[in-house]
Structure formats: C-alpha cells, structure tokens
C-alpha cells in the first residue's frame, strides 16, 4: 500500500470518480483543485486548494507523495492563453514538483485529442505520431513529451492515459467506439499505479468496445484489461443518431467533433449537441 | 433503418443465408440473381432477375438503394472468359450503378483468394499485398481496387469482406482456422451496413477460431466481433483428416486447395474432395 | 544474348524509344502494335501487326520468344469499355500467351497511376497498397496482380515498372520529382531483361531526381541505377509554373492531374495543359 | 493418433508435467533423460536413459518416432562448458537424429531468455531479434537457428516454444506477466503437435495473463489459446513483493533476474530469492 | 519569385547565414530579432525589431508575407521560464500571426534535440516519436506539434527542419555524423521554400556525411540534396578527440552532450568544451 | 592511434588483405592463426601461433589489446564437429578473452550465410531474423548472438560485418550484387575500428554495387561508405554465365550456392564451379 497519493483536478468530473478508489489504495490521499472545497471527503482524504500554474502551490501539496494522479486542467478546447496557463504551465509544475519531491510516478490524464487528426480508418497504436486537433490536444502532446523528458533525464516514471470519451454511458454514435466507462477508468488508473515499473508509457483509455478503433497492445504489460462494452448501448443510440458524412473530418477522424471545432472554441459543447437523449 | 437494400447473388448459398437478416434491416429489400426466381420471399422483399454483366439491368435494380450487398459472381475458379464477364465486368457494373444512383456503400463479398498465395505461417493483416491464387482471386483483387478507386474519386464507400470458408460447419482441417460460420457472416454484414462511416475498408471474413491465421485488427472500428469457433469441430475433423504435407502449397498457403488448382479449373471440387464426412 | 524479344506497343511513344536498344540485346526483335507498320526497322527487327485483345494474334507473335516487353495499351485515361478491352483483356492475352509459349519473363510498363491516390508526402515504397486514380490505373493494378498470379502458379517471371512521367524532358513542376528520362527508361528495361532471375518484382520508373518522391530500394537487386536528374530543368520550369494548392489532390497526390481527372476522360490532356513552354 | 513420440528431459520438472498428456496422444511414448529411471510409467510409456550429447544414444531412442518433444537440457544458467555440452551439442544431436530418422517435427522448449535483454516496455513479437541474457539463453538462440536451418535445408519442422515462467503458480511480481500455467503448457505442446503443418515457427509460452508483455499473434495459426491468468494471484503476491527499481535491468527487461545474473551463475536461485512465500 | 519573406532570429548565427540567400529569393525581405539592429542589410532587406513573445509585434512584421523562416528563439538549453516565453510562446505567436495574415508556409528551425534521447545505434527516420533531451528540445517538440495542428486545422504549411550541428566546420567527433554545413543549410531552406506544396513535413538538417546517423528519405520529395561531408575533417578531429564511453548517453544518444546536460543549464557550453582546436 | 590490435585468421585470404592496413592503425599488431608462421611481417607486427579453440592460447595473444579483429575460423561449410570446435568454441574463446582482458571491441567477420535462406527478392536490412544456410552460417548466428550477450551483460562492443563475396574481383553473376572488394573490406574494417562507440552493431559487408541486394542504412553511423562497384565486371561475367533458374534456391536466395549445398559439404567448391574464367 502506498503512503501518499496526490490527485489533481479532484473537483472535476473524472476526479470525482477517482477520489474514493484512490483513497483505498493509500494511507493518505491529498486531493487538490482550484475550487474552494470538495464534498464527501474519505476519512484518509485531505483537500488542499491549489493553482497548478503556481509551482509553489504545487510543491506544497506534493510533499512526501509516492505518486501523483494528474487530472487537473481545463477539460475542453479553450483560448490559447487559458490553455497555456492551466494545461501547459500546469503540467510543468506537476512534473517539476514531482521531481523535486522524489515522487516515483505521474499517472496522467492525457487525451485522444493528442492524436485526434488521424483518420479513424487508421487503426493507430500508441506509437502513432502526435497529431493534435485543438490547443487542448496540443497541451496534451506537450505534457507527454515533458513526461518523456523527465523519465529519460530524471527518472520520474509516467503513465500517459489517452482518455477517449469518459462518460457514465455512451451517448452518441462515435462513443460506441470511444467510450471509457467509469469502471474501466478506475481499472486503468489502478493498473497504472500498481504496475511495479512503467518507465514512460502511453496507454489508450478506452473500454472493451466492439468498435474500439485503436490498438492498446503495446501497453499490455500494465495489466489494464477493460470489462465494459459500449455495444450494449448501440440500439438506443443508433435509433436516434443523425447519419454520418464520410467526407467530414468530424465523422472520419479519431478526434470526432474536436477535429472540426474552431481553435479556441468549446468542443465539449459540440459533442453535447451530437448526443442523443437517454 | 435503411430505406432500400439491394442484394446481388441472392440465389447463391451465401445469398440465401443473408436474405432474411437483410430484410429486417430495411424497409425494402430487392434481391437479384441470374436465376428466374428465389423461394420464400420476405414480406418486404422483391426479387428481380438481372445479369450483372449488363449495366442496364444493374441500373434498374439499384434505383433508389441506400446500400448494395454484392455477393453475385461465379463462386469458384472458372475459365478466364467466364470470370471476366461475371466477376470483373459484373463488379464494374455494380460500382458504376451505385455511383450513378448515389448509393452510399457497397458491402462486397471479396475472398481470401485475393491473397491466397501468401504462406500460412505469415500472419497477414489486411494491408498484405494482393497475391491471388486463381482467376477467381484475381477478380476479387480487381473489385477491391475498383472499390478503392470509387471511394477516392467518387465518394462511394465500400467494405470488402475477404470471406474465408463460409459453410454451415467446418469440414476439413484447413477450415479449423478458416471457417466463417453463418452466424458470423450475418454479424459481419450487419456491422458493415450499420457502421456509420467506412470509407474504403477491408475486413477478414473469419470466425473466432482458435487457429485463425489472419489479423483483423485494422478493421476493428467496424465492430465486427465473431462469436463462433471451429475448434468445437476439431475432434471430428482431425480424426478423419489426411496428413498434411509441409512442402505442399495446398497445405502451407492461405488459399488452401486454390493454391494448387490449375487456373480455370474448379477449386471448390478440390475442397470437397478434402472434406471429411460428418 | 537472348534469341528473341517481343515488344508490344512498338508504335507508341515509349515503344519507339525502346526499339533500337532492344534490337541490340537479341538476335531477333519482333515488334508489334495495332498500327499497320512502324518506320525505320532495325536489321534484326520484324514488325507484326496484332490486336492485343485477341489471344490468337498475340499467340502468333510470341512464338519462340525468350522475353516480352509489354508496352501495348491505351496510354491515357479512357472510357471503361476501351480500357477493358485494350488494357485488361490485352494484359491477359500477353501473360497467357507467354505461359503457353514458355516465355521466361514479361517486362511490363505499369504506372504510377496504380497507386496515384496516395499522398505525395507519403514516401511510398513498392509494397504500398494499390490505390488507382483512374480506370487506366485500375488496369495497371489488374495486370500487376495477374503477373503475381502467373509467377506464383505458373513460374512466368515479371518485372512491373511503375513508370512515372516519361518524357524527353520534364515540363511541369510535378515532373521535377516524377520525371523518367529516355536514357533511364532504357537503363531500367535493360536491367529488367538482363537480371538473371526476378520472380515477381515491382520497380519505380523514375530518374535520379533530387525531388524523387518514392523509395526504390526494394528493387535494388535488379541493378537499375538511374543517371538523369530533372533538377537541371528546375529554373526553366519553376519560373513559369503556376502556384500549387496544398488542398488540391492534383498537387498533393502521387498521381498528379490523374488524381482529379473525371473517370473516363483524358488525363494526358490535363497534364499537357499544366506544361510550361520550352 | 501418432505412432511414437519421444520426450527428452522426462525427469525434469516440465517433463514430468508432460508425460501423461503425451502418453495419451500416441501409441508409444518413449521418455528419456540422463537419470536412471523415472517413476509412474504410463502403460504405453518406455523410459530409455540417454545422454543427449551423444548422437549415438539419441539415435537409438529416436528410431521410428513421428515427433520429438525436446525438453532435455540444463534448465538454468550454468558455466559455459556445461551449456556447450548439454544445451548446444545436445540440440544438434536431437535435430540431426530427427533428420536421419525422418522424424516429422521437433517441439522444442526454447525460452524467453533467448530475448531476455529486450526492455519490458517493448511489446515484442516473435520476430524481435535474438538478444540473450545468459549462456543459457544463448544456447536457446542457437537451437532456434538450428531449427530454422533444418527446416529450410532438410524439411524437418520445428515449433520453438519460448517458455517464460512455467510454475505451478506464480510466485513473484514479474510472474504476474510471465507465468505459464501447467495447463497452458500442456495446451501449447498439444497444439504444437496437432497442428497439421508448422514449418519453422516460434511461439511465446505464456498464459492469458492480464499483464502479458509479448505479442503472440504471429503464431496464432497453431491454435494455442491459453486459459489461465496469473492475475488471480496478484493480491497475494503484490502484498509481499519488494518494490521494483525502474533503473534496474532485472525489473525492466523481459529476462528478469537473468538480465543481471553474472554469466555462468544460477539465475533460478536468484528467481527463488525473489519469490514470496505462499 | 516570392513577394515577401520574413526571417526571425536574423541577428543569430544561423540567421546571419540565411539573410543574403533569402534576400535573393524574394522582392522584400523583412528580418527581425530582439536586437536593436543587424549590420549589412541587403538592398531589399528591412530590419524590424520585435519580441516574438508578443503577438502584436509579430503581427506587425508578418503583414503581407508569403512565407516566414522562423529561426528566432533561445538557441541553447536554458531555464524553463525563459524557454517558455521565447521558444513556446514565441512559436505560438509566429504560427498564429502566419494564420491571421494568410502566410502560406512556416519554414522552421526545429532541432535534433526534439528526439535527442534516442540511441545513436537506432537509425531513426522522421517518424520516430518525440524524445526530447532538454527544455530546449521540448519546445521544439511543441512547435512541431503546433505546426501539425495549424496544417490540419487551418491549412498553414510547415517544414520543420531538425537541425543537427550547424557550424562553419565540424569540431568534435560527434559532428562527423551530425554536421550541417552552412551551404547545406542554405540548400535545405531553399528547398523548403521552393517546393510547391509541403503540407506538414519534417526533414533532418544534416549534411551528406559518411557517418550520418538518421534516415532522411521520407522528406525526399522536398528535393533537399546535401553536398558537403564532414569526413574531410575526420583526420584533424579524430587526432585530438578524447575517447568515447559506450556506457555514456552523451556518446550513445543522438542528442550528444544535451543528453546529459542538467535541465536548464547550457548544453552549448558543454559542446564547446568537447570541441577540438582548429 | 590504438596501442595494440590483435588479428585472428591472419594466415587466411582476408586476413592477408588486412595485415598491412591494420599495422598502420596501431603501435603493435599481433597476428595469429593456426599456421606456423606468416610471411612479410610489418615492422610493428608480431605473429603468434594459436589454436582458437583453446581459451588459454587465446588469452595469451589478447593480453593488453585494445581491439581484436576476429577473422579466424573455417571459411567454408564443413562437418559439424569441425565447425563446432573452430567456429563456435573459437568464437566463445575470443569474446571471453576479450572480456577478461578488458578489450574494448571485437570486429568480427560474420557472413551473409547467417541469413542466406532469405529470398533475394526480399531487400533485407540488418534486422532480418537469422536464417542460416549451413553449419557455417549457423556458427555465424551463434557468434553474433554471443556478441550481443557480451555487450548487454559485459560491455564488450562488437561490430559484426556480414561479409558477402570478398574476392579480388567478382567472378560469377551472383557476385555482381554481392561482391565486396578488398578496398571496401579495408574501408569497412577501418570504420569499425575508428568509430568512437558502436555498442553491438551489424553491418553488411558489400561494395557499392549497382545490384546490391541488402539495405545497409541501419549501420550508417559507422561511416562505412563503399567505393567499388562490381558492375564494371558485368560484361565479362554475363557473357560467360550460365542461365539462372528462378525455381532454384541457389539462384533465388541470398546465400547462393550455400542455399543448396548439402550440410557439411564445401560450398566454396560449388561457388568456384560457378565461376567464369577471367
């Protein structure tokens, strides 16, 4: 059992999913976010407000940690200056603080949008070159390269989880391939923490969907084996989904709506617009 | 639900397997073949006799279709002139009519024999180069390249299903690896129709056999997940099968008997001669 | 020295370039085309009119040949029915006659248009999948697959030379990368004939241009080493060339203008329209 | 059913696991080892003492065999002279005797240690280059190359099973990825024997572990489908395992402790030292 | 001839090499840097001081440009905050201004240090994954990914030239493989500007050295053909060079001294310390 | 300049070519072979008779050496027992003595016959799997794997030069592709010695022939750049060469006559029988 884990982005949607399972994996869980507080603390959980773009503040929460689970960042396409501060500088501070505090490993919420412009008919694996679809994706590329640097030069391990579509349930036709269930998210983070050594590793964050469009085999040593499958939602979704357009990057690229959203504007809003009711 | 699907080769063995499931996927199913008629029409099924080597006749049946499921062709090695008319000209007419009628997609019964001369110890994926074993296989290569052309130049989508050994049950040692069950055939055709966008895609038509000799991962986004496994038939078959010869292309190539049958002569007859009783 | 070589397409532009060099490589050169006659026969050259779509006529000219250099076909995009007869049936007759007469090898004028829809920023080698840009290119794909079949099943060797832009000199910006000089054409055909064994081989027909966009290394055992370089023509051409459009397949695909010409219409005319004066 | 199978290394740990299942696959099982005798012979089993470094002795036991299952060798790192006699000369005698007696196939206990110096974060398949970690692994490389030679030049088939960690149950953190259960060992040997033709094939000997670090797809035509999963032992093992060191080849290479054991000294002893109690 | 080219980093060492050749390729050359002025302006050259981290200032110099040649950045490893402002924000402003002003293409001085941690015995091509060796290299990774994004989403072309060791002459043993002569630098920039279309392209900036350690073939369509060879300097250098250490990343990685320099400290100083006198 | 180089196989044909050039690269050259003496010693050359299968004798000659150039072995296919002693045990003693004496690097005469069964139409690079054609080739595979082991575990560097056909001039049709001139042999050995660090490296030993059938790019960092070309001998050789047979492994495999010579019998004799007079 680990002594101390730090979770950034604890007030976010996915952070909220992870707080309880992480609390069970360590003696002390420190959760942090820009928000004032989070509700329902576990007994061994402490919440510490921090701005990730401040190295000082990050240094404070990371003291004595064995691992950091880094989910704190703007979770959508946004104007460049916002991404720069939160997602680029905010990544630097996390890895730098991890290095200074001798944290063993960063488990990082990267994203499919680091490679979102690859066509969906290319069954890419984790060695496909970076091909971001937004500033948001570009910042994920940056953090992955930073993770590679800190491993090669400073021995800090990282697992970069390229999360696809993490929702309670899939709500559009694209998500039949790209869905990551909450259960599988927890399984993946658990594997990323428990695997004895990882060096610098990239893994696709996707469930065991019939229509899974990426090859996860290179990360198989992590032992992440997803158990959910979006296909059980196919009848509901396909009955309501609008037809797709084979000439449209939105429908043909891994990044989905992010492949066409104008830089700096919300892609999440566009995804929501494509979602079917439930 | 699609408005209209056209099935060519409806009087053939595999066409017969597909008629009912296709009827359930659309408002109107038009089945066609060179035969005078087919039995047991579904309520929403119309049969229209047509010679696929005639563009006029193909144009008539394709009018208003959303998709065409193209299984109509000589299903065995045959003299060049026959293959030329039925399988080469017959492919041209189908894609050309599809284009003229703005049909969205051709779901095509390609074949392992498009690549049958590759050695079985090569675990090929769908990017392995064409390497036909017969005129029959050569015509499949032609149709796949035609499909690629109509996608790149004219936006007609195609799913080329390289069907291996589609039988009610496997009946020879080779089929323990190459069998495609009727259930999995239906699953594959269904996926090829329902996947929202496909562009030009190739997929291996094979069940989830223990001994499956090809890599289907590049087409995983289609969501075809086979459920049958020839291995349940292994004891019956292996007890009766003649020994194989590691120096014989018939036993070492993906094409099996087609790898040695003289050009223009029946390979199906040779396969039958290798089959064990049941 | 070979006993007898047959050259098809002898009245064509490239055929005319090859007649003299081929005459020097054998005791008897038989040249053939659909035209009535060709001028300036070499002393050991015989001209025999033949329609390549007739197996009988092809059989007559091929009798006793050691090798056939097959350049006879429509050399431009054309309506399907024309391509079918001249380029598809015409390929079948050549390989079939070669087989029946125990001809050792077919040296074949394939074309870049067999793979013309690949993007130019992909540095493809000879294993890239077929991706034709026209019916013309589709027929080249067919002939290559036929050549593969006749080697694997019948032991007839083939060298498929994917000729790019064979002109006396390059006359447009694309040709700075794709030019094949007449001298290099002769060198390539000579290598294809003289290499002791070739099996089934594909080689790019392109000069040693600074901007060469394809990888010819897999055919290096043939010993084809080009000596000309289109770059000497760059100043003249670039001074006159219209700007290119990075969003236009014509400018971004290996096939050039063929990547956008409507199926069945002349691509050569479009290339001419892009040419600069000299 | 085969007439006669020979099992070498019958007195060893894995040989003992295989004797009964092999006896059921043939009319006559001849088991052999350097020991005087083995206990509990099956009714159709004969034991014949033999020194594998003597071609004469190997010739005697191999007479009339259909297949040989070759597990006889020093099963640990050892001084060079010992490995030379038992594992290198001992491999030569087995393949040479197999050739002279027209034995169809050698099913060989190769080892992960033939490629043990590859980093674990490289998800290698069976085409990764040899990269031995010990003299023991070097001898496995030798035997695989010998097997390749005897197939290419003499038509003797071989299946080289690169066994990872074959134990009754996994007992250290590394084995959560590398375990091969006894049941899966039997399944793999059975597949290697029953597959009608194999030529020269390499397969990873590993169970269906969540953390499996290698890609077995190239040998899928053999039909080996493992059924056990070390993950059921994860809680017990991880609770007791010492932390790993990402800078230590022992923890980062496929070979595990063999990646750091001095040449000539026991790696098995080092593995045992890492094992947790049960 | 282009109308207007902008050169950033004009006061730097490489910028100085490029000013004259660029002036000859366009009607108007605007050079810019953080310095007050540069000497020896060409007749058609205007110098405009600008801070690249200010979008406003960059917008001003880029107005009306056809292409921008972007060499302006800190040219050495430096503290994070400096790299962030000059090399990361400074890259954003260049591509953003290029987009707003409809500049056709950015010709960018990337660096080997974007992939400097790959071992030198790996003959990498331009698809090898990012593997930076310093913050400096990390910023190059960022700019390349930004370039990819602006091409895919906004149609701005980029040629990312991964410059190795650009010096007047090579001065250490490593540079015998990695040297880029000034003449070849000019040839490469010229090719990157003159190639009619490039999309997003990466090219190695290295001369035609005997010991060249990278594969440049994927960018061959650019027509960059180097003419200089560091080998002429080998006797002088090897006579003075200190022996290398095969266990030292400095001597075994593509990045050379940058592979071992502490993050934030000068790698150029370390390179100089390794240089031999001339 | 190196202090001491040891050359094994000094009395052999290639050893004789290397003695003078090696003497110029070091202060002291020790040459060794099984013969009593060699003629024409250089002033700084000492000859020491030694049997390579004796570790003691090898230890004696290697004392104090910086590098060993290992060419001592049976240079032809031979009976197993002979190959075992001279080429397998003889390789072990060289690397073991090198390790014990802290020799920096072994420059090794490996051979094309380590991979001779690959078809010539496969343009293999140095990562192609071992596929020996003889016991002779099998021993080369062994030594390469041994070299890999001594680098990974003990830090002894190795350059394995897979020499093709090293003759004064090419004398048969195969050698037009496979010739290594004496000048290029010396260039390659020089590069292998002078390259500052090599780790474990494999390089093809072949001249710059027009018909070169292998890809040497992965070893380009060594700086070996051949200057001779067998093509100048083509007219003489092709005029006399017997026709080749595309169905014959001798003519289709990289190993040439070794691909068909019976194991244990002389392949060199067969090559000579194929040679044309001069």
TrEMBL record, chains A, B, C, D, E, F:
Occurrences of domain NAD-dependent epimerase/dehydratase (ranges): 5-164
Which superkingdom? Bacteria
Q: Which residues form the signal peptide?
A: none
The protein's name = Uronate dehydrogenase
Q: Which UniProt keywords are listed? A: NAD, Oxidoreductase
- One matching Pfam family is Epimerase
Q: Which family does it belong to?
A: Belongs to the NAD(P)-dependent epimerase/dehydratase family.
UniProt keyword annotation of Protein biosynthesis present: no
Q: Keyword Chloroplast, does the record have it?
A: no
A GO molecular function term, named singly, is: oxidoreductase activity
């Amino acid at each position: 059992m680990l002594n101390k884990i730090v979770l950034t982005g604890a007030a976010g949607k996915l952070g909220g999913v992870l707080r309880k399972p992480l609390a069970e994996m360590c003696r002390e869980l420190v959760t942090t976010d820009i928000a004032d507080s989070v509700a329902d603390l576990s007994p061994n959980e402490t919440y510490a407000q921090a701005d990730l773009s401040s190295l000082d503040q990050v240094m404070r929460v990371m003291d004595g940690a064995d691992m950091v689970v880094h989910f704190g960042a703007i979770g959508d396409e946004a104007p460049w200056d916002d991404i720069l501060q939160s997602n680029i500088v905010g990544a630097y501070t996390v890895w730098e603080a991890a290095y200074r505090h001798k944290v063993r490993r960063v488990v990082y919420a990267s994203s499919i949008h680091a490679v979102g412009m690859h066509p969906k008919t290319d069954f890419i694996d984790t060695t496909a070159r970076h091909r971001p679809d937004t500033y948001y994706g570009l910042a994920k590329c940056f953090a992955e390269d930073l993770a590679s640097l800190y491993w090669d030069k400073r021995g800090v391990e990282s697992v970069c989880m390229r999360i696809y579509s993490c929702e309670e349930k899939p709500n559009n036709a694209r998500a039949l391939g790209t869905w990551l269930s909450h259960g599988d998210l927890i399984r993946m983070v658990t594997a990323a923490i428990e695997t004895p050594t990882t060096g610098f590793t990239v893994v696709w964050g996707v469930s065991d969907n019939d229509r899974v469009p990426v090859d996860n085999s290179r990360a198989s040593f992590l032992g992440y084996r997803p158990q959910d499958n979006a296909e059980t939602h196919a009848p509901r979704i396909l009955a309501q989904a609008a037809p797709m357009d084979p000439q449209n990057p939105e429908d043909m690229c891994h990044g989905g709506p992010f492949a066409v959203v104008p830089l700096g504007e919300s892609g999440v809003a566009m995804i929501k617009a494509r979602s079917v009711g439930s």
